[in-house]
Amino acid sequence: MLTVSDLRAGYSRGADVLKGLRFDVAKGESVALMGRNGMGKTTFVKALMGCLPHVRGSITFNGTEIRGLPPYRISNLGIAYVPQGREIFGDFTVAENLAMGVIGKPLKVDSVDFVFDYFPILAERRTQLAGTMSGGQQQQLAIARALVGRPQLLLLDEPSEGIQPSIVQDIAMTLKRIAAEEALTVIVVEQNIDLVFRLATSVRFIENGLIKTGVSIDEVRSDPTLVSRYLTV
Amino acid sequence: MSLIFLIGLDATGYVLALLLVCIGLVIIFGMMNVINLAHGELFLIGAYSVVYTQSLGAPFWLVLIVAFCLVAFIGLLIEQFIIRHIYHRFLDTILATWGISLALKQAIIVIFGPASQQVVAPFAEPVAFLGITYSSYRLFVMAMAIAVTAATFLVLYKTKLGLTARGVIANRQMASCLGVNTRRIDRLTFAFGSGLAGLAGAVMAPLMSVDPQMGVGFLIPAFLSILVGGAASPVGAIWGAAVIGTSNSVIAAVWTPVIAQILVFSLAIVVIRILPNGIAGWKKK
């Protein structure tokens, strides 16, 4: 579904964070991208989304080369993005935030109500200003806003960040259910091993802008040295 | 008693005229963060489009539509060829729009000459009510200002396009990542704000001497109003126009216009010093 080869990207010219990265995701996979801070995880998802100025190499999505396209066209091809820090529209209501998720889509979406099935709290708070909600609720809103556009591939950047552990578990379970029911392919950047175990089917470890190894989730479970090698400082 | 009523009506008229100019400016300055020094010239082109279309014998309602569309189109060109390259260079937008303002003003002088032009109001019969008589056209300008402001608010807060525009303004990158073509929204917003300046110029033309300097007279109090009212939202334009317009016309009626200018500028400095985000910004907290 997604094939990335020789991806080089960074925030300023001549200072690449990603140094020729290769990455493949098959339809229906839930891949966790793990690695220490500063290794290029967020840079990678931003490069996929078209949010970086200096990106070279190739990114194909369903056979279409998407490198160099502006973010809105990548979004409209079926990739949805839940960024680090959620980036919800704080001055907008929950309903308006969800509307932003479909407003630019070429196909008219009849209803966004199906996401309330996954996140019932949002249905209760439709008219509340998103900025006044708790971190966990905002994260649910950010995920729901990504889903309403009916994407095929969902990119999640640190969905557990700043959220209390019990809510993280709930969100992980809900994401697992969404991936199955909506036939979604998921790439999740995450440091929280608990969330990764609940959601992912495989794990890729990133180090210094390159994918070092890719393994199934069962191998990660049976070999704790993998996590310590790529995650502990 | 009727004198006070007359002063009140004049003040209201000035406030609403100021609001008419501010509402386009607040969209471009407050929401898109571009200090558009050419706003006065867009106003000017709106007024001159009345001079031209009236000489062709077009009805006044058509003149207004032409003024809006023509100036919106000019705004579109300015955005497409100049502003879009310098959105992230705030200070350069001042320099660039100042250049545009000079070019537009000179173009007007080349076409129409430096002398002032006379624009005839479509109707001017005085109407008598509550013991005074008042120009019907002035009442029409007030009604237009209210209608244009209301329409702008409806577009911004009750339509999908308005929601999209506010989303792009609040978080450009995220809006783009959700599938919004932000370039299209930038163009539309800038053209809409420009068109409103043109419409304001056209509506105000019969009340003013239409000459190449007329834009400046409204630009300064309009910027002042937005700073005092709060640039972040269109509500600020209403607050600012009310405060600046009322104090200016009341003080001018009691003393002289010169004292009014001095006092209003001093008042504005005090308000901005105490409330850096303007009156609307303070209300929000």
TrEMBL record, chain A:
<dbReference type="GO" id="GO:0005524">
    <property type="term" value="F:ATP binding"/>
</dbReference>
<dbReference type="InterPro" id="IPR003439">
    <property type="entry name" value="ABC_transporter-like_ATP-bd"/>
</dbReference>
<dbReference type="InterPro" id="IPR052156">
    <property type="entry name" value="BCAA_Transport_ATP-bd_LivF"/>
</dbReference>
<dbReference type="InterPro" id="IPR027417">
    <property type="entry name" value="P-loop_NTPase"/>
</dbReference>
<comment type="similarity">
    <text>Belongs to the ABC transporter superfamily.</text>
</comment>
<dbReference type="InterPro" id="IPR003593">
    <property type="entry name" value="AAA+_ATPase"/>
</dbReference>
<protein>
    <submittedName>
        <fullName>High-affinity branched-chain amino acid transport ATP-binding protein LivF</fullName>
    </submittedName>
</protein>
<keyword id="KW-0547">Nucleotide-binding</keyword>
<keyword id="KW-0813">Transport</keyword>
<keyword id="KW-0029">Amino-acid transport</keyword>
<dbReference type="GO" id="GO:0016887">
    <property type="term" value="F:ATP hydrolysis activity"/>
</dbReference>
<keyword id="KW-0067">ATP-binding</keyword>
<feature type="domain" description="ABC transporter">
    <location>
        <begin position="2"/>
        <end position="233"/>
    </location>
</feature>
<dbReference type="GO" id="GO:0015807">
    <property type="term" value="P:L-amino acid transport"/>
</dbReference>
<dbReference type="Pfam" id="PF00005">
    <property type="entry name" value="ABC_tran"/>
</dbReference>
<dbReference type="GO" id="GO:0015658">
    <property type="term" value="F:branched-chain amino acid transmembrane transporter activity"/>
</dbReference>
UniProtKB/TrEMBL annotation, chain B:
<comment type="similarity">
    <text>Belongs to the binding-protein-dependent transport system permease family. LivHM subfamily.</text>
</comment>
<feature type="transmembrane region" description="Helical">
    <location>
        <begin position="12"/>
        <end position="38"/>
    </location>
</feature>
<keyword id="KW-0472">Membrane</keyword>
<dbReference type="GO" id="GO:0005886">
    <property type="term" value="C:plasma membrane"/>
</dbReference>
<feature type="transmembrane region" description="Helical">
    <location>
        <begin position="188"/>
        <end position="208"/>
    </location>
</feature>
<feature type="transmembrane region" description="Helical">
    <location>
        <begin position="58"/>
        <end position="78"/>
    </location>
</feature>
<feature type="transmembrane region" description="Helical">
    <location>
        <begin position="250"/>
        <end position="275"/>
    </location>
</feature>
<keyword id="KW-0813">Transport</keyword>
<protein>
    <submittedName>
        <fullName>High-affinity branched-chain amino acid transport system permease protein LivH</fullName>
    </submittedName>
</protein>
<dbReference type="InterPro" id="IPR017779">
    <property type="entry name" value="ABC_UrtB_bac"/>
</dbReference>
<dbReference type="Pfam" id="PF02653">
    <property type="entry name" value="BPD_transp_2"/>
</dbReference>
<keyword id="KW-0812">Transmembrane</keyword>
<feature type="transmembrane region" description="Helical">
    <location>
        <begin position="214"/>
        <end position="238"/>
    </location>
</feature>
<feature type="transmembrane region" description="Helical">
    <location>
        <begin position="135"/>
        <end position="157"/>
    </location>
</feature>
<keyword id="KW-1133">Transmembrane helix</keyword>
<feature type="transmembrane region" description="Helical">
    <location>
        <begin position="90"/>
        <end position="115"/>
    </location>
</feature>
<keyword id="KW-0029">Amino-acid transport</keyword>
<dbReference type="GO" id="GO:0022857">
    <property type="term" value="F:transmembrane transporter activity"/>
</dbReference>
<dbReference type="InterPro" id="IPR001851">
    <property type="entry name" value="ABC_transp_permease"/>
</dbReference>
<dbReference type="InterPro" id="IPR052157">
    <property type="entry name" value="BCAA_transport_permease"/>
</dbReference>
<keyword id="KW-1003">Cell membrane</keyword>
<dbReference type="GO" id="GO:0006865">
    <property type="term" value="P:amino acid transport"/>
</dbReference>
